[in-house]
Amino acid sequence: AHSRRAKQEAMRRDMMLANEQIMRQKDIQRAYDAEKEARLVATMRAKFAADEARERAEEAARRSSKMHHMSLVERQREERKSMYEKERSQEAAASSEAQRREEYRRSVIQEARRRLLEEHAAKLEGFMPARAFDNMDEFRAFQETRK
Question: pTM (2 decimals)?
Answer without folding.
Answer: 0.47
